[in-house]
Each structure stands twice: as structure tokens, then as C-alpha cells.
Amino acid sequence: MVSRFFWAKQSYPRARPEELHPTERLKKPVQPPLKMSQPSNKPSLTPQFCFNETALRDFLRLSRVAIDDSIIQNLNALITPARAGFDPSSTAERQTQTSRRRPIDSEACQSFKDNVLFQSWQTRSDVLNYCAGVAVNPGDPDLIAREAESAKDRERVVNERLDPYSGRFFPREARTESLANLIRNERGVEGIIRSRSWGLVTERCGDTGIGWEEALNKWRATQEEKRDHDSK
């Protein structure tokens, strides 16, 4: 009887919320820090990748989810590190809905556009343009890149080559026609997604008076100038 009493596990009543110190009641579980989305890495571009339409769609989907579908959260995250510039790792948690209308530092906005948004868009454009080249000529997918030096011109050439009513529409095999249809559809989706994202960016960062296409082309021109300068 004594031994059972001695070894019995003692239980203590749990303190009721009203008995806790105010600071104890206010404590919340510590949440791991959330980081800003980063541009997707460009996949290894080969004809095999392009003809694997599932892999191509997955890449586009994941890139859009990380950047464009999360554009509001990404913009809200700029508020915390605004005065220190854009720093993806410095944001501890997502902002509340009340922060959606708060102004964002112009330098942080510009850094986000240059280093994340436009970079992600260009990566997807590079993939779609390369795969358009595969659809046009699987044996020479870099043909479009050679015909048009600038990224802006490549967009125009791709439009011509993928237009089924154009005299320059080449795909004839079943798999190339299927890929051409996929590229046309995905380019249309890109236009819708980018227009929406750009509207939200201009709402929070200030309207620059230009559309997303012109803004992207200006960024492209700047990047090409930097590459030319570095190569000299």
C-alpha cells in the first residue's frame, strides 16, 4: 500500500487561462520565418524537354505559382525591409490584409521588379521561345535565336512562326503541331497573368504610365546593354 502510494504518478491541476500571467496568455507559438519567392531556375533546354509536355507545363505552373500567383504576398513582404532595400531573407512573416494599401519604398519595388518579377518572366519567355524553335525545326531549335538578336525581336519572330495562317508556319508532324499549339496557348496565358501581376504592382508601387510589355522590353534592353558592356 505504501509502495503504491510512493510510486504513484502525481498529477497537478493545469492552470486556467485567467490564472496565467498576462504575458503568458499573449504568447503565441513561434512561426518559422517565411522567405520571399525567388525566380525559377531555367531548366536544361533540349528538344526532349519541350516534347515532354508534362514537364514543360509543370515548369510553367510552378514558376507562376511562386511569383505571379503569390504577387500580393510578395509585395506585402517588401514593406518590412523597405528602407534597407529588397532582401528576400529579411521578411519574418507575411503582412496582414491591412498592409495591402500601404505604400512601398520605390527602391524596394524597383529591385523586386528587376531581380524577381522580370527575371521570372524572361526565364519563362526563354523556355517558350526555345520550345517554339523546336516546334518549328526540331533539328535546329536555335534558328529563331539566330534570326533575332534581341529578346523583343525573338517574340515577334515566334509570333510569326507559330501563326497557323502565316506563310512562315512550318510545323507539319503530329508532335510538332501539338507542341506549337501548346506554346500558343501558354503564351496567351502568360499575357493574361502578366497583365494581372503588373496591375497589382503598379497599384502598390506607383503607376509608371507604361504597360507590362513596354516595361519588360526596357528591362531587357538594360540587361543586353550590361552584357555588351561586360563582354568588352
The percent range for strand residues is: under 5%
- Helix percent reads 55-70%
The major sheet is characterized as:
none
| Total helical segments | 10
Span between termini: 93 Å
How many runs of DSSP E, i.e. beta strands?
0
SSE pattern: HHHHHHHHHH
Principal-axis shape equals globular
Describe this structure in words.
- Helix 6 packs antiparallel against helix 9.
- This protein is globular.
- Helices cover 59% and strands 0% of the residues.
- By secondary structure, the chain is mainly alpha-helical.
- It has helices at residues 2-7, 22-26, 47-51, 53-67, 71-76, 106-136, 143-147, 151-162, 174-205, 212-231.
- The longest helix has 32 residues, at 174-205.
- Residues 1-10, 28-34 and 90-99 have low confidence and may be disordered.
Could you write a compact summary of the structure shown?
This protein has 232 residues and is an all-alpha fold.
Compile the SSE list and pairings.
Layout: H1 2-7, H2 22-26, H3 47-51, H4 53-67, H5 71-76, H6 106-136, H7 143-147, H8 151-162, H9 174-205, H10 212-231
Features:
232 residues, mainly alpha, disordered N terminus
